[in-house]
Amino acid sequence: MSRAGALFPVSSDKANVLRLRLAALHIQEEDLDESFVRSSGKGGQNVNKVATCVVLVHRPTGTSVKCQQERSQGLNRYLARKLLADRIEAAQLGRQSQQQQESERIRRQKRRRSRRAKNRMLADKRAQGAKKALRGGVGRDE
Which residue has the higher pLDDT, 39 or 79? Predict the structure, then answer.
């Protein structure tokens, strides 16, 4: 994939990071079936003439991704490989994948925040109750 770095219209650093990530996940360029389709959706004449949508299939795992995010085919090829790496990483690593760790962290943070809010609400209720207890009622024998 050393030649593929030149095919992507991104910086060489980004291309190298992607190449290393694919290598770490044991995804080889030979295992990918890449096809190009005309994109659909909003756009003018260029969208109708140029096949900018990229469909990648990783043969060993059967994982396929479709990317038509950008207007250029080269950038979509890069983004499709990134998306494929994300999906295969999620499948291989399960709970250890970055995406799941991030969602777990957010869930814990929300749980903590809601517990804090509940405690604050209960403290306000106790303060209001104490205030009411100090008031003298009408017709009370005190």
Answer: 79
